[in-house]
Amino acid sequence: MVAVSPFTILSLSSCKCRPTFNPSSTSRLFFTKPTSFNIVAMSEDPVLEWILTEGKATQISRTSPVGGGCINLATRYDTDAGPFFVKTNRSVGPGMFEAEALGLQFMYETNTIRVPRPYKVGSLPRGGSYIIMEFVEFGSSRSGQPALGRKLAEMHKAGKSDKGFGFNVENTIGSTPQINTWTSDWISFYAEHRLGYQLKLARDRYGDSSIYEKGQRLAKNLTPLFEDIVIEPCLLHGDLWSGNITYDKNGEPVILDPACYYGHNEAEFGMSWCAGFGPSFYNSYFEMMPKQPGFEKRRDLYMLYHYLNHYNLFGSGYRSSAMSIIEDYIRVLKV
């Protein structure tokens, strides 16, 4: 028998675009007073079992709820082997967390930008699933956007694929399925598995035939936007907005909650409208990964995927932004 608190609250996960939090205030924003402990048999709790066996802990001193997201529940476990971060979801099986763990592991293995190291994914005995990972202590000081740009470029350079564009498994962008079927051609991959999927979702969910039909016209005519460039698949975080970027206690950048796949490096900036990337970020990034011809004319194309996803997740407030991008491209491309 071991002491553990069952109490958790909403966790750090892909969610609606919100203002950036100051890391110096994370203790106030994300952590509440540890709850009182209840007695739970270890065999009934696979999280507890892993921490006290493979996690090499002999004692759990407290559990603290962690907030800040809108999809999963999260808890910090403080132990004599160090802290662990645990996310749970009572509604889905382990597939979602397995995909997240695979993305984290691939990014971790590039030995570039810091990400939480995943340790264990499994099913909960009464339904749902969990993931256990390294707990990263956030700090008040930060190395800033130049370091973020440089480290991200290093990851893109290191994370290569010989299978083409896609990923080993399907995953999610927020709570939307993200299709990652391996494809040899980037334009085809982006048109079908990024724009096409979101457009169909909008048509099926809202009956929005207008955005579907115009979006499909664009998706079928992307080639002129990619003239005179060579696109190599590189490992992308996939959902890089301010809520998924922070800094550790040494001030180094940390990226969280990925929606990984191998794609065009420029697609990583698709959430720039919600990430706060400034000139120093881009200058540092392009010193490592030189800017390709036509970067500016593709910028909105990569934002479109995320605007469509926000439309499908959160409703009509994002429709006008998505439609405006589609109509602008249709006009410029004359299709």
Structure overview:
With 335 residues, the chain is of the alpha+beta class. Helix content is 35%, strand content 17%. The chain is built from 9 helices and 14 strands. The longest helix has 21 residues. The N terminus is likely disordered.
Name a few traits of the molecule.
alpha+beta; 335 residues; 17% strand; disordered N terminus; 6-stranded antiparallel β-sheet; 14 strands; globular; single chain; 9 helices
The DSSP helix count reads: 9
Q: How large a portion of the residues is in β-strands, by DSSP E?
A: 15-25%
The class by helix and strand makeup works out as: alpha+beta
Helix content: 25-40%
Low-confidence stretches: 1-14, 18-42
The average pLDDT value, as a whole number, equals: 89
The shape, in one word, is globular
CA-atom Rg in angstroms: 21 Å
Largest sheet: 6 strands, antiparallel
Please outline what is shown here:
The chain is built from nine helices and 14 strands. It is of the alpha+beta class and 335 residues long.
List strands and helices in order, with pairings.
Elements: E1 2-4, E2 9-10, H1 26-30, E3 38-40, H2 46-51, E4 60-65, E5 73-79, E6 84-89, H3 95-109, E7 118-123, E8 129-134, H4 145-158, E9 171-173, E10 176-178, H5 186-206, H6 209-219, E11 234-236, E12 245-247, E13 253-255, E14 261-263, H7 279-288, H8 295-314, H9 319-333
Antiparallel strand pairs: 1-3, 2-5, 4-5, 5-6, 6-8, 7-8, 9-10, 11-14, 12-13
